[in-house]
Amino acid sequence: MFKLLKSWLKNSLIALLLATLFLGISTTAWTDSSYAALPAGNAITDGKALLRYSLPIDNKPVRQLQKSLEDIANQLRANKRWGAISNDLKSASRILDKPEKILASVPEERQPQAQALITELKSGVNSLREVADLKDKEKVWEQRAQTLNLVGDLEQLMVTGFPFEVPAKYSNLPQLKGRATVSMKTTKGDLTLVVDGYSAPVTGGNFVDLVQRGFYNGLEFTRSEESYVLQTGDPAGKEVGFIDPKTKQYRAVPLEILAAGDKEPTYGITLEQAGRYTDMPVLPFSAFGALAMARPENEANGGSSQFFFFLFEPELTPAGRNLLDGRYSIFGYLTDGKEVLDQLKAGDKIESAKVVQGIENLVEPT
Question: Does the structure show a pLDDT above 80 at 313?
Fold first, then answer.
């Protein structure tokens, strides 16, 4: 019922890749004009970067600051273009030299915290310049990651309130009005997950609620050789999802997809069914460890407790053209533990999962 990727999908992906190579189909994601601040080139494959870009903010200087620092990764991969990295850092410094433009989007009560972060960012960019001058690739990677974490913290301070109203018909389901961090212990090691309620409040709320209940503790993972997902959430017994102890009913979660440029998610229908064949979701299947809700193939609103990690394979699942974007609800990304996720196989278990940050953003159903 919940088997997502079969051999036909693998063959479809191969065919799609060949079409990309021989027919010139672009694999670049984020084509919507509202995402003009995103770096040019191939789709983003870093879950942390996707989470930063998906924050509901509209401050061009901080987005340009992020873009400059994100671009360093492209230059490091392209045979370490130190001149281009130097230009990125100069751009970042110029932006930080005019903090008032960044602070304009930060509420007054949060400005002292924002100013402290800007000071840290200036120091971080200076440190980056020093290690870049030494052409120390490993230290540049490390310092860049630390500096981008500060950018993410600064961007988070700009978020005020929740950006849209969830349809009243889903008020019977938990909702995540913000973000939450989940720590998951498995038989192979620890994983850290960030759940994005700004883009998927119903799907994210359902997951965080089940984590709080201890629902996933002790459940096994499933993974087949021909698929590119690691799935879990199937409870013991005949049930395939969560049975709410209050209602004694199967908790069904609607398909929920926020498309780039939209002000609120689309519910109960895939982007393809809506005729939006080229539109991209804000949270795409372009990063290893994307978190998505599993569902019966022909039931858009049939998801419940089962979810999967997407094991991104760039050769067979090209970003932005992977047959899953717009068809399944992504509600977050793996942010730590990539090596652990890569090792998990069928039969491995979730020993425990708990919300370590953001539980205050969970809104219980009415």
Answer: no
Residue 76 to residue 140: CA distance in whole angstroms: 9
| CB 65, CB 151: distance < 8 Å | yes
Tell me the pLDDT band of 226, cut-offs 50, 70 and 90.
low
Say yes or no to pLDDT of 319 above 90: no
The predicted pLDDT at position 26 comes to: 33
- Residue whose C-alpha is closest to residue 204's, from 30, 354, 329: 329
Task: State the pTM of this model.
Answer: 0.88
What is the set of domains in the chain, with CATH numbers?
57-157 (1.20.120.290), 163-363 (2.40.100.10)
SS3 363: strand
- Is 12 buried (19+), middle (13-18) or exposed (0-12) by CB count in 10 A? middle
Q: How large is the angle between the packed helices 82-96 and 111-133, nearest 10 degrees?
A: 160
Three-class HEC string of 232-297: ECCCCCCCCCCECCCCCCECCECCEECECCCCCCEECCCCCCCCCCCCCECCCCCCCCEEEECCCC
Residues 155, 158, 159, 163: is their CA dihedral positive or negative? negative
**pLDDT-derived band at 92, boundaries 50, 70, 90:** very high
In the sheet that holds 229-232, the strands lie side by side as 229-232, 307-310, 290-293, 330-336, 189-196, 179-186, 350-357
Sequence-distant contacts of 312-318: CB under 8 A, at least 24 apart: 312/45, 312/228, 312/285, 312/286, 312/287, 312/288, 313/228, 314/45, 315/17, 316/10, 316/13, 316/14, 316/17, 316/228, 317/13, 317/228, 317/285, 318/13, 318/16, 318/17, 318/20, 318/27
User: pLDDT tens-digit profile of 249-260?
Assistant: 999 999 999 999
Q: What is the mean pLDDT of the chain?
A: 88
Position 300 scores a pLDDT of 94
Q: Which two tokens stand for residue 184?
A: 């998951």
Beta bridge partners of 181: 194, 357
